[in-house]
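Appendix B. Raw example, untouched.
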Amino acid sequence: MEIVLQIFLLAIGFTMLIKGADFFVDGSSGIASRFGIPQLVVGLTIVAMGTSAPEAAVSISAALKGNAGITIGNVAGSNILNILIILGFTAFLAKEIVPVASSTIKYEMPFMIVIMLILLWMGCAGNDIARLEGAGLWVIFLLYLFYLIKIAKKGTGRNPEAGGREISGNGRNKKEKSMAMLSLFTVVGLVLIVIGSSVTVDAATAIARIIGLSERFIGLTIVALGTSLPELFTSVSAARKGNADIAIGNIVGSNIFNILFVVGTSALITPVVFESKFIVDFIVAAAAGVLLWIFSFNGKSLNRVEGGLLLLGYLGYFIYIL
């Protein structure tokens, strides 16, 4: 009887994620169009930080409870999943190729790779991320926000279409929606995404335990993927609606946010343990970033074949961690 209840909750969780992603993408891209803000900036900021809420909640909560060691595993696993699984699925399931903005290729992707390597260096140097290093990550995070604000200012005043493509289908009615309605869509979508993610992870974990899967397997698969479900549904939804800048920007921004804000904040609360086993994981995360950059640089887009290769990359990593 319990497994029937958990399957029902799992279905409810997925429904909330799907509808939440739709509302969130529609609302945030509509607001961007109203203010002439590039879709890329929306993806790198509001969407990225919003969909990273589960990772932030798990890591910061763990730090407050004196169990900050979970932070590094959560961030490493999430960043690998974001690139290999989520962008892999996004490119594989998109109706057309997924174009990548030139600024993302030139600036955000290399920046993401560099800060992954910086975090790896911090961990290898002292076996933990100390409060001073956490403060350093926060300084970089503030500089990154300043950079994004400058991009947004350059985008203001332009034609809405200059900020990115309009979403197809019901997106043509976006100009008719009031600012209040667009804001409501964004907030409701974010709430549904975060709650749906929590419900889905809890239900899937319960089902796994009922049928006898190990705690380790649950942690490596269901929980890791569960906290990345918001990024998955939001990115696939954005790509299928033609807002590729939000899809790519969401993942790149989420990975940057995970390292600078999540690890930085956790380290400010208490030093974050960086166990030696995480060295390989962060090397894989950085390598996945480099692979994404190479694929994007070649043709300034991601196609289905490249999406399939990213998915195969995660399969290889998954076999390794097992």
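End of appendix B.
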